[in-house]
Structures are given as C-alpha cells and as structure tokens.
Design a protein that fits this description.
Layout lengths: L2 H17 L5 H8 L4 H28 L3 H19 L5 H32 L4 H25 L7 H17 L16 H4 L11 H29 L11 H4 L1 H5 L1 H41 L7 H28 L6 H31 L9 H22 L6 H4 L5
Helix pairs in contact: 1-5, 1-6, 1-7, 3-5, 3-14, 4-5, 4-7, 5-14, 6-12, 9-14, 9-15, 12-13, 12-15, 13-14
C-alpha cells in the first residue's frame, strides 16, 4: 500500500470514529434518555475540557519522547474501550465522566493525525499544501460513512452508535502501529526547562499576529460546537409536527445533514487555491461569513417549502468548517518549525476544541435553557439560530478589523522548513 493510501486510511478511520455519534448523540440524549439541555451542554464540554490540556501534552510527548504513530495508536485503543463502556451508562452524571475519559484519549488524536501526515509527507518530499487536502478529504468521507451507517441501521437514537464508534477506534488503534515511523526530534540538547518539556509552542502567543489568530480560532471553535450539538436534533424535531412527520428529510435527518460533510469534501480540495490566491485572513473571513449564513438559513428553514434552506445551509457548512479548521491547521504548520510541529498543532486544537468548545457548550446550554426553551421542554429554534448567527457576525467584524496579515504566497505557503 502506498504512502498516500496509508494516510488516507488513517484519515478515513479518524473521523469515522467521531462521525458515528457526534451528530446523532443529541437524539439519543433528548429522545431516548430524555435528559435536559443544560446537562447536554456539559457533555460537549468534555470535548473542550480534554482539549485544554491533552493535545498540548501529547504533542509535547510526540515531539520529545515517543513516536507519534505509536502514541496515536495507544490513544485510539483506550478511546475505543471507553466509548464501548459509554453505551452501557444510564444516568447523565456517569455519562459525563465516561465521556470525559473517552475524550481525553480521542481529542488529541486529531492534532496527532495532522502532524503524522505532515511528518510522513515532508519526509518523502511531498508538497504538503497540495497533497494534504486530498488526503484529509477522506476523513470527511469517513465521517459521512459513519453518519449514514448510524442512520440507515436505525441507531441514530440508540446506544449502538457508540459500539460502531468503538469498533472503528480499535481497528484504527491497531492499524496505527503499521504507519511509517514518526520519531521525536532528539537533535541537539535542550537548553532549558521549556525546551526540554516541549513548551516552546506556547511562545507563539508572544507574536501578536499568532496570538490573535489563536483567539479567533477559539471563538470560531465555539460556533463549530453549536452546529454539531443541535443541527441534527433541529431537523429531527420536525417529527413532532404532523404535517412534517412522515417526510424523508425528517426520518433520515442524519443523511440530510451529511450533505454538510459532502460539501466539506469539495471545499477541502479548493483550499490550496484559496490560500494561495487570497491568504489566510480572507479565507478565515470567508469562513466566518459562511457561519453567519449557516445559522441564519436554519432559522427560517423547514422540511417542506423551506427544505432548500436546510440544504443550502449544509453546503455553506463545508466552506465554514474547512476554511477555518483545515486552513488554520495548515497556517499553523507554515508558521512553526519541525521541532514544535506536534506541540503547535496541539495548541491549535486546544484553542478550537478546548477553550472554544467550552465557551460554546456552557454558553449555549445556559442561553437555550433560560431563553429558548418552552414550558413543555421544546425549543424555540428560530430564536436559537438567530442568536448563533449574530454571534458569528460579531466575530467576523472583529476579525476583519483586528487581524493584520499581509498575504505573500511565496512566504506563507512555504512549508519546506
């Protein structure tokens, strides 16, 4: 099997594991378990809490002491075991703690998968900017495959979605040990505590441009969690409205929402062109405007005459996600040296899926329960989506004004250091 195919397989399974439950867990939580919105926010907060420290820690370990692919494999095996047990938990408090343990093992693997891919590609003299996006796109295909598997097997509101995820994680964990060696950088002697511990990546905050970049990555990370938490649940809720209950869109809401991931596959492939033509600031700004459209369209959508709004919001999501998440990862790669590659990617993930996720989870849970939940427990979806759209618009305006970056494609996209 060629190097690209091996990395494609890793990327596919990496996001298959997540896609099996991330979009459908809301249906399991509210419809099957009938637990509350504030508690649900705390579940997504586990993604944030674990991302506060684990990506950075594992990045340091991979940079200094252990082969990245071996650490990656161990984490996936432990994550799979935890997710398998999660399916058997029957109260929200225990569910939180088991999910937290699972996310401690899973969340750092996102950054590690990026650094492994970058390491392998650079070691074999590939152009990362051109070659990585077509590999990463298979992660999105894996996410879609998992969503479809969960929905078509009738498990979008059952505990079997976690079993599907666990099996995928265990397979990936074992497969990881067959990947090319990504050895830690042991060249030279550490000059101090920060360098010996691999903490030099945090010095990126001393650069005002990078500090602002990480700040806005955090704020966009909050928006990402909002759509993951409530998108599928929003469409599925129309089953309680008689005139919509029997529509295909409602019965197979997860498949419809997977249009978002299909859109991702197209926009990922467009990233090299957009980065080279417009630069990171404009690409990130496009992403923020796309988030406004994503939320705004859902505010006025329905499964009948408003179906086009749901579909268009899913298409827009691909741009919103990729132009922020994948482009952001590539930008961090271009701004850092090989010695702190894994640490810097871990730091980026910490800001996005760590602090950003915590902000999105806690704030959205509180706001929805306090202002947009009816007496019977149903949600005021229009108000929820409009509030999210306003948030994204404010972030976009602030980014346009505050983030200063002069685009030079010959410098910005040089990843051969």
């Amino acid at each position: 099997m060629g190097l690209k195919m091996r990395l494609i397989t890793m990327s596919f399974l990496q996001f298959f594991v997540w896609g099996a439950w991330l979009i459908t867990i809301a249906n399991y939580w509210f419809a099957t378990k009938q637990w509350g919105p504030a508690e649900f926010g705390s579940i997504f907060m586990t993604l944030g809490l674990s991302s506060l420290f684990m990506p950075a820690i594992t990045g340091i370990i991979a940079d200094r002491w252990i082969n990245a692919e071996r650490l990656y494999g161990v984490l996936h095996i432990l994550s799979g075991i935890s997710i398998f047990y999660l399916a058997q938990v029957d109260n929200p408090q225990d569910f939180f703690w088991v999910m937290f343990v699972a996310m401690i093992f899973y969340m750092p693997t996102i950054a590690l998968s990026n650094s492994i891919a970058y390491n392998v590609l650079k070691s074999n003299n590939f152009d990362v900017i051109k070659v990585f996006p077509p590999i990463r796109v298979w992660g999105t295909v894996g996410f879609i495959a998992a969503m479809w598997t969960t929905n078509l097997t009738g498990h979008k509101a059952t505990e079997y979605q976690f079993y599907i995820s666990a099996i995928g994680s265990l397979i990936l964990g074992i497969y990881s040990f067959t990947l090319p060696a990504c050895r830690p950088d042991k060249s030279g002697k550490a000059k101090g505590f920060a360098e010996s511990m691999g903490l030099n990546a945090f010095k990126l905050f001393a650069n005002s441009k990078m500090a602002l970049f990480f700040l806005f990555a955090m704020l966009l990370g909050a928006a990402l969690q909002l759509t993951n938490m409530y998108g599928d649940r929003f469409v599925d809720n129309f089953k309680d409205v008689p005139k919509y209950a029997d529509l295909f869109v409602v019965k197979y809401s997860t498949i419809i929402m997977s249009i978002s991931q299909v859109s991702e596959t197209l926009f990922i492939l467009a990233i090299p062109f957009f980065l080279k033509r417009f630069g990171i600031k404009k690409v990130m700004l496009i992403s923020m405007v796309a988030w406004v459209l994503r939320f705004g369209l859902l505010a006025f959508a329905n499964p009948a005459d408003g179906l086009w709004m749901i579909i268009l919001s899913c298409i827009v999501y691909g741009m919103a996600f990729d132009f922020f998440n994948v482009s952001g990862s590539l930008f961090v790669e271009t701004q850092t040296s090989a010695k702190i590659r894994s640490s810097a990617q871990g730091l980026f993930m910490m800001m996005v899926n760590g602090i950003g996720a915590i902000i999105g989870s806690i704030t959205s849970g509180y706001i929805i329960e306090s202002y947009y939940t009816n007496a019977d427990g149903s949600f005021q979806w229009k108000g929820i989506w409009i509030a999210f759209a306003i948030y994204a618009a404010i972030v976009a305006v602030l980014f346009a004004v505050l983030f200063r970056h002069k685009h030079d494609p010959n410098v910005e996209l040089d990843v051969k250091h």
